[in-house]
């Protein structure tokens, strides 16, 4: 499903630089962000509210299209990279790409299976996303792929995926997305051994006879 709206977010120009300045900004509740773009004279260094930006990523994903209001100046952008703290998962930094409403971009889009498999079949997902070329205002948050009734031995490759209108696959068409396999069964011997072991009770050691004094 394509995003219905461009997400508006406020920002202000960043005037201090360096690790110390970035740390102070994060402590104050802001995230340092850089906007890049071929049409820009120079990258734009800005600060955005931490809670606002976290909400964008949480609700719209990393392909979110933003209308960034930089102290009254509007800049259409999309999220290109997010740097998270490995311990806290807080966003330490982000890169945005300056875009135009009428252009297309290459993005990774999550692929999600739908439908019920044939009885006795198990779905293995080999790739979580596929690369597509899409209009910036029609980037889907995910692409659904039906596996209804798929039997053991069925494989779905990137080239098999039906894309929404306007999207073009740029990934390898032979990239394996879903593989329908037969569930592995636990060896009967191991099951019998477990059952037999459950029925055996440990024999307590007999108390030693008291020696006569």
Automatic annotation (TrEMBL):
Q: Gene Ontology terms, cellular component aspect?
A: cytosolic large ribosomal subunit
> Which residue spans traverse the membrane?
none
**Residue span, Large ribosomal subunit protein bL25 L25 domain:** 9-96
User: Which residues does the annotated region (Disordered) include?
Assistant: 184-213
- Large ribosomal subunit protein bL25 beta domain location is 104-183
**Annotated InterPro entries:** Rbsml_bL25/Gln-tRNA_synth_N (IPR020056), Ribosomal_bL25/Gln-tRNA_synth (IPR011035), Ribosomal_bL25_b-dom (IPR020057), Ribosomal_bL25_C (IPR037121), Ribosomal_bL25_long (IPR001021), Ribosomal_L25_dom (IPR029751), Ribosomal_uL5_bac-type (IPR020930)
Task: Check the record and name the Pfam families matching this protein.
Answer: Ribosomal_L25p (PF01386), Ribosomal_TL5_C (PF14693)
Q: Which UniProt keywords apply?
A: Ribonucleoprotein, Ribosomal protein, RNA-binding, rRNA-binding
According to its UniProt entry, one GO biological process term is: translation
- Molecular function terms, GO-annotated: 5S rRNA binding; structural constituent of ribosome
Q: What domain of life does the native source organism fall in?
A: Bacteria
In the record, the note on similarity to other proteins reads: Belongs to the bacterial ribosomal protein bL25 family. CTC subfamily.
- Cite the record's note on assembly: Part of the 50S ribosomal subunit; part of the 5S rRNA/L5/L18/L25 subcomplex. Contacts the 5S rRNA. Binds to the 5S rRNA independently of L5 and L18.
Database matches in PANTHER family: RIBOSOMAL PROTEIN L25/GLN-TRNA SYNTHETASE, ANTI-CODON-BINDING DOMAIN-CONTAINING PROTEIN (PTHR33284), RIBOSOMAL PROTEIN L25_GLN-TRNA SYNTHETASE, ANTI-CODON-BINDING DOMAIN-CONTAINING PROTEIN (PTHR33284:SF1)
NCBIfam families xref list: bL25_bact_ctc, PRK05618.2-1
Q: What does this protein do?
A: This is one of the proteins that binds to the 5S RNA in the ribosome where it forms part of the central protuberance.
Against HAMAP family, the record matches this protein to: Ribosomal_bL25_CTC
Q: What is this protein called?
A: Large ribosomal subunit protein bL25
């Amino acid at each position: 499903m394509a995003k219905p709206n461009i997400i508006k977010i406020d920002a202000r120009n960043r005037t201090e630089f360096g690790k110390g300045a970035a740390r102070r900004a994060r402590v104050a509740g802001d995230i340092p962000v850089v906007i890049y773009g071929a049409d820009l004279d120079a990258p734009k260094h800005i600060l955005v509210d931490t809670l606002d930006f976290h909400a964008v990523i949480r609700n719209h994903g990393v392909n979110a299209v933003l209308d960034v209001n930089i102290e009254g100046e509007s800049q259409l952008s999309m999220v290109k990279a997010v740097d998270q703290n490995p311990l806290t998962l807080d966003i330490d930094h982000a890169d945005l790409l300056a875009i135009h409403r009428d252009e297309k971009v290459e993005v990774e889009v999550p692929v999600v299976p739908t439908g019920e498999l044939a009885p006795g079949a198990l779905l293995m997902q080999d790739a979580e996303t596929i690369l597509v070329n899409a209009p910036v205002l029609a980037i889907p948050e995910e692409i659904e792929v039906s596996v209804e009734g798929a039997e053991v031995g069925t494989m779905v490759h990137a080239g098999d995926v039906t894309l929404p209108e306007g999207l073009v696959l740029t990934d390898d068409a032979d990239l394996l997305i879903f593989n329908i396999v037969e569930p592995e069964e636990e060896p009967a011997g191991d099951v019998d051994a477990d059952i037999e072991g459950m029925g055996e009770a440990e024999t307590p050691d007999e108390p030693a006879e008291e020696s006569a004094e």
